[in-house]
């Protein structure tokens, strides 16, 4: 079967990199559709995306990554979903490596494993929490539990139906996919994107991320 790929790119204030990201993703052979969700950006993300993407959905207010992905999910037509951040720029070419395990039927979901960070960010609390929750819920360990760069098969898409809201979307997705018995493969990639630093903005972001991940884990444990 000649499977096609739909790329979904949620973006918030990514005017500096969104155009390069879209053009690079469009150059990947199997990608036939690139859908961008402008999640209430206050810059020129929409104006730049509309020039090159196949479809751009503009949200009036910022709703968060999970909600933005759900808008794209409703529009995607491909057999495989490729979930990517808007700030990957030319390194988005590495997304082709995420598609390969699904085309070869080795995996139902692939997760990008980035190179080690070159800057000091947080203290690893969010990652540690995600790893703890995933091991407790799925009995598996992951090197990149928070990675948002993923490829999903059509069977996974049908099963999950929708994405969790907020920054807990990746952890919730991994729990649901593993508990449903699907195969997951982590794929080393040479991607790079903007990283949060050890400043007020970075700590606020990671605090919200920690809260969202914790909420997802507690919710899944109750079920």
UniProtKB/TrEMBL annotation:
Keywords: Transferase
Glycosyltransferase 2-like domain mapped to chain residues: 6-123
One GO MF term: transferase activity
Domain of life: Bacteria
Record InterPro entries: Glyco_trans_2-like (IPR001173), Glycosyltransferase_2 (IPR050256), Nucleotide-diphossugar_trans (IPR029044)
Keyword rRNA-binding: no
Pfam families found in the cross-reference section: Glycos_transf_2
Keyword Acetylation in annotation: no
Database matches in PANTHER family: RFBJ PROTEIN, UNDECAPRENYL-PHOSPHATE 4-DEOXY-4-FORMAMIDO-L-ARABINOSE TRANSFERASE-RELATED
Name of the protein this chain belongs to: Glycosyl transferase family 2
The species this protein was found in: Orenia marismortui
């Amino acid at each position: 079967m000649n499977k096609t790929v739909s790329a979904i790119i949620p973006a918030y204030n990514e005017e500096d990199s969104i155009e390069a990201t879209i053009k690079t993703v469009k150059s990947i052979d199997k990608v036939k559709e690139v859908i961008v969700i402008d999640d209430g950006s206050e810059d020129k993300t929409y104006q730049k995306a509309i020039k090159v993407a196949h479809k751009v959905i503009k949200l009036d207010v910022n709703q968060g990554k999970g909600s933005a992905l759900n808008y794209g999910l409703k529009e995607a037509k491909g057999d495989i979903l490729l979930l990517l951040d808007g700030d990957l720029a030319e390194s988005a070419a590495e997304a082709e490596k995420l598609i390969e395990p699904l085309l070869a039927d080795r995996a139902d979901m692939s997760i990008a494993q980035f190179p080690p960070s070159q800057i000091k960010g947080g203290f690893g609390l969010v990652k540690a929490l995600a790893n703890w929750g995933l091991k407790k819920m799925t009995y598996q360990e992951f090197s990149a539990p928070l990675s948002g760069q993923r490829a999903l098969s059509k069977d996974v898409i049908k099963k999950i139906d929708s994405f969790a809201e907020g920054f807990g979307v990746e952890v919730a997705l991994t729990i649901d996919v593993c508990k449903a018995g699907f195969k997951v493969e982590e794929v080393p990639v040479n991607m790079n994107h903007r990283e949060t630093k050890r400043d007020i903005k970075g700590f606020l972001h990671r605090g919200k991320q920690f809260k969202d991940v914790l909420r997802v884990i507690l919710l899944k444990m109750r079920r």
